[in-house]
Design a protein that fits this description.
There is one protein chain. This protein is α+β, with helices and mostly antiparallel strands. It has 2 domains: 2-335, DD-peptidase/beta-lactamase superfamily (Beta-lactamase); 351-456, no CATH class. The protein is built from 13 helices and 23 strands. It has helices spanning 2-6, 44-47, 57-66, 102-107, 111-122, 126-135, 167-172, 181-192, 228-243, 250-253, 315-335, 357-366, 413-422; strands at residues 11-18, 24-32, 38-39, 75-77, 82-85, 88-91, 99-101, 154-155, 177-178, 197-198, 205-208, 211-215, 220-222, 261-270, 281-291, 298-305, 351-356, 370-373, 380-386, 389-393, 426-430, 435-438, 451-456. The strands form 8 sheets. A 6-stranded antiparallel β-sheet has the order 3-2-1-16-15-14, with helices on both faces. It has a 4-stranded mixed β-sheet with strand order 17-19-20-18, with helices on one face. Strands 21-23-22 form a 3-stranded mixed β-sheet, with helices on one face. Strand 15 (281-291) and strand 16 (298-305) form a beta hairpin. The longest helix is centred in the C-terminal third of the chain and has 21 residues, at 315-335.
Length: 457
């Protein structure tokens, strides 16, 4: 909410997934209304497919590494950050780059490098590239319990009417395909999960009047999306985005307490569907990643649609800041809780009650409270507790043999009824809680069959 309001953004979504299981632990969506307020008007994480931008470069890297066409050390010429494909120019946001490694191209987010590599290896065999995307389930609905037709993905094929000679280089850096943020979370989560692609789910158990009727377990969609070498190189590239000097995520997401791996994305989108002409462009900012890098526990996507009035537009500046703030809270709460115990002042309150000595002894043992019993005979005791020290003693009104009414004020209902009925009283109860008052005064002689009213509070 803070980023949406301060940056005058249009809408945004955050998805947090448990890496090992695929369980969606949290999802939040907010959209701007005509009056300037933000409400949850659409599930943008599940129900809105968009061109993902540079976060999709991981899919291109996956294909290139899996086919053994490149390694992270392979060199690629970025040609100064501008490259034309059949008259259409692809540019880097940071112009002037020359020959660099694939690793550097990834953490610097070079559009030219990934467009060139994809064109070089898949222009003449586009079906091979598309099949890799299908293997990642990027062309099908995610399978989560929430159904949204507007969240249907679109992965082109050479048979598509809109397919052209420039499709492969544009797909390579996040355009000419439509996916939801949840699709990208699933893919990145598989990389974090050592290659295992999990089905996302929201519900653990269905209860019917407290009785479990259905239980949902994690479902593996693909046991291994690639070999260990490919997964290792992908994870290395994602970590370099944050850890390496020149990485697009370093300035915002680098942290000395724990490590983050992920990818920034800044996708150009059309204003009111009026095309990508200068002046009509707005930007979708994304960051998808996982943490801690060494043994990932959570995978998260933050996707925010900006407006023409937005001050910040880039993935790290907008979504990266939100990712970092949420990740910090998760890390402190669940992954690194405080270990220093705050000393508490001893409770000096004097507590008095009545009960059976065996019950009181059981309670004191469980709570590790020292106690002293000043009496030997009888089953009932008065108890006084102060500063974790308890004293048990008998009371003349609790002696069973004497026909003297006992004082049951302060007792629980079970103990009070047990004591009174065993002494021959007919007990009537009103209210809930402990005994507040009794109609027959303690210490008075009585005959068996005497009625007594207990008022509880």
């Amino acid at each position: 909410m803070k980023m949406l309001v301060s940056n005058n953004s249009q809408h945004g979504t955050v998805i947090v997934m448990e890496t090992e299981t695929g369980k969606v632990k949290a999802i939040a969506n907010l959209g701007k209304q005509p009056d300037g307020t933000y409400i949850e008007d659409l599930n943008y994480g599940v129900g809105k497919s968009t061109e993902p931008g540079s976060v999709f470069k991981l899919a291109t890297l996956y294909a290139l590494l899996k086919d053994k066409y490149v390694t992270l050390d392979t060199k690629v010429d970025c040609e100064g950050g501008v490259k034309s494909f059949y008259g259409l120019r692809i540019r880097d946001s940071h112009k002037g780059t020359g020959i660099i490694s694939v690793r550097e191209a990834f953490y610097q987010s070079s559009n030219v490098a990934f467009a060139k590599l994809a064109y070089q290896y898949y222009h003449n065999q586009p079906d091979k590239f598309i099949q890799h995307l299908r293997d990642l389930r990027l062309d099908t609905l995610t399978g989560i319990e929430i159904v949204a037709s507007s969240g249907k993905p679109l992965i082109k094929s050479p048979k598509s009417k809109s397919w052209s000679k420039t499709t492969i280089p544009y797909m390579a850096h996040g355009y000419e395909e439509l996916v939801t943020p949840l699709h990208m979370v699933m893919f990145y989560n598989a990389v974090a999960n050592n290659g295992r692609l999990m089905k996302p789910y929201l519900v653990n158990t269905v209860l019917d009047y407290g009785v479990e009727t259905q239980n949902f377990e994690p479902v593996t969609l693909v046991e291994k999306i690639a070999d260990d070498s490919t997964i290792s190189q992908m994870r290395e590239a994602l970590r370099a985005v944050v850890d390496s000097v020149g990485g697009t995520g370093r300035r915002i997401l680098k942290d000395s307490m724990y490590s983050i791996s992920g990818k920034t994305g800044t996708a150009v989108t059309a204003l009111d569907n009026r095309g990508y002409n200068k002046g009509n462009k707005i930007y979708q900012a994304s960051f998808v990643g996982f943490f801690p890098s060494e043994k990932p526990k959570y995978t998260m996507a933050v996707v925010i649609q900006n407006t023409r009035e937005s001050r910040f537009i880039y993935g790290a500046d907008v979504s990266g800041r939100v990712f970092k703030e949420i990740a910090d809270h998760i890390y402190k709460r669940f992954l690194n809780p405080p270990t220093v115990e705050i000393p508490m002042a001893p409770d000096s309150t004097l507590v008095k009650t009545l009960g059976m000595k065996s019950d009181l002894a059981t309670i004191f043992s469980f709570m590790d409270i020292a106690y002293r019993d000043s009496s030997i005979e009888g089953n009932w005791r008065k108890m006084e507790l102060q500063k974790k020290q308890a004293l048990l003693k008998t009371d003349s009104t609790l002696v069973y043999e004497a026909f003297i009414a006992p004082d049951v004020r302060g007792m629980g209902l079970k103990d009070a009824v047990y004591l009174l009925e065993n002494k021959g009283f007919q007990v009537v109860v009103s209210g809930k809680g402990k005994v507040a008052t009794q109609s027959y005064s303690a210490g008075r002689p009585y005959s068996k069959g005497q009625k007594i009213l207990l008022m509880l509070n």
